Automatic annotation (TrEMBL), chains A, B, C:
It is found in: Cell membrane. It is a multi-pass membrane protein. Residues 31-105, 118-190 form the Glycine transporter domain. PANTHER family: INNER MEMBRANE PROTEIN, UPF0126 INNER MEMBRANE PROTEIN YADS-RELATED. The chain crosses the membrane at residues 28-49, 55-76, 88-107, 143-163, 169-190, 197-220. It comes from the Bacteria. GO terms for cellular component: plasma membrane. Belongs to the UPF0126 family. This is Glycine transporter domain-containing protein.
Length: 227, 227, 227
């Protein structure tokens, strides 16, 4: 990403006397971001194929699931054009992942569910952490930054379900959005207590990932009022 | 709201030689805004509970119904970040109202429908007036400002219905969005004819509220073409 | 459109020594834009009537189908407020077309389907070309500009289907969004190879229109994976 990024300025400005750690951190963030984008794009394509959409629908759902949450976050925090529109690499990666899923759908079908769930939890945690960080970098109130982290992690899935004309699954069941929210909250609280950005991000990632995996493993659900 | 608000500047700049009326008006607007937010958040939580959503879904619908219309308006008129993102008090109030509705749902169930309808009409009128005013303050064309008022009043309910995978009720039945539109139009016309902002707002509120209540009382419907 | 438009600056700055061609081109663009808006508004109203919506629902769908794609494009490329909000002529035209369709629905029903399909393809091609051009004028990456063109052409129909609680038809069947994408790509590639803006626009229009009409005529479909 060659264009101006407030995040870099913030990181460069505090606590890091030389540029090396910043550059390394930027690369780690970039790789994590691209990995999360790819996982979510594959899931979007998979959902589109199962819903009987055509190739264009598959590509649209790859894009939307991978990038929709970040786009809504950027619109809400005033970071326009959203980075997924400014940086062509993210959409291209989403489309390539979607197309590959379409062509190799039999192989994707045979991936064990446990692996998909784990990769999805990784993607969720990456996006929740990145979303909270970007909101803080744009001077959004810490409480709202936790919401922006959750939105980054879950927004794409919500739009996917709206496009498929069904109630978003995160509103009905599972510890999913709440895991993203918790991870984002850990990032924000960590920053408040003067953790380094890298440590806060790592703690937030672990919190979200472990909470999500434990919820799947033990079948945890949020309370609900019986009809 | 401690940050810069164009609305205050406008009000301070015209016709008011001292600051006192402005301060009082600001407080009235704030209280009205918070009251409308609370009523809509309770309704959103109520709809979520009836649709079988879990606690997270209840909180999301509280947020969306209370703040979704204003957020879309702010994105459309270029007031970013939207005030519901910049000012943490609105989301916190929406979440608290949603959580309280979840915990006290039996009590909420027993509230008479007529009271709920009346409170809802109050919230609708408050939001329609506030939405039209904010659009005018951002130099949006008067005709578009009436649409922004209607959007502020009804947008949250539209997103609620989209999330619940059903056709938005305001598009199908009832004098609801049209009452909001009428109230917003009264505000805009009043301002054009040099009413004081307070008088224009009061007239718009009364117009929307009375039209909505009369429509409920007498079962008024907009025309529709039989299938 | 009397307010500042980056598009005009770009056009005025390159290759046109006098103002005459620019003015003529602006008028052609304006007429084309208004024609596309009217066609799409009629289609939105038609869909609303068939879905049993009331008069307000008909007006909302006229607005959304005619202007929704352009509004989302403008939000994504950072052109806020969107031109459909800044320029009252577009919404007024959409509402007038929607109201006329409501009043004259029997006559609209009797319009031959082939004519409607042709007009729709004209509107699609106009919007795809205009959307790609505007994105380029806002310095969006060429690849993303092709997506913005497709979004301008199809976004309104996607929101229509979401409001009607059904899976957007462009995701499931037909060469429609892909025709818009192809037309937008022709515009972008033409500009890259130093075509005049007018020639690139004309080529993009023809490509989208012919591809769409051929797809209807010969029943072309995109590939899909059998369930």
């Amino acid at each position: 990403m060659t264009d101006f990024e407030p995040q870099d300025v913030t990181v460069a400005g505090d606590r890091s006397p030389d540029r090396r750690p910043v550059t390394i951190r930027r690369q780690v963030v970039l790789v994590a971001d691209l990995a999360g984008t790819m996982v979510f794009a594959i899931e979007g394509a998979h959902a589109a194929i199962r819903a009987g959409l055509d190739l264009l629908g598959v590509l649209v759902l790859s894009f939307v699931v991978a990038l929709g949450g970040g786009i809504i976050r950027d619109l809400l925090i005033g970071a326009t054009p959203p980075s997924a529109i400014r940086d062509w690499r993210y959409p291209v990666l989403a489309f390539v992942a979607g197309l590959a899923t379409f062509l190799l759908h039999l192989q994707v079908e045979s991936v064990p569910a446990a692996l998909l769930t784990t990769l999805d939890a990784v993607g969720l945690a990456l996006f929740a952490v990145a979303g909270a960080e970007k909101a803080l970098d744009f001077n959004i109130h810490p409480f709202m930054a936790t919401l922006m982290g959750a939105m980054t992690g879950c927004g794409g899935g919500v739009i996917r379900d709206m496009l498929l004309a069904r109630v978003p699954v995160v509103l009905v069941a599972d510890i999913y959005a709440s895991a993203a929210w918790a991870g984002a909250a850990v990032v924000v609280v960590g920053r408040r207590f003067s953790c380094s950005p890298a440590l806060a991000a790592a703690l937030g990632f672990v919190a979200c990932f472990l909470l999500r995996m434990a919820a799947v493993r033990f079948g945890w659900q949020l309370p609900r009022i019986a009809g």
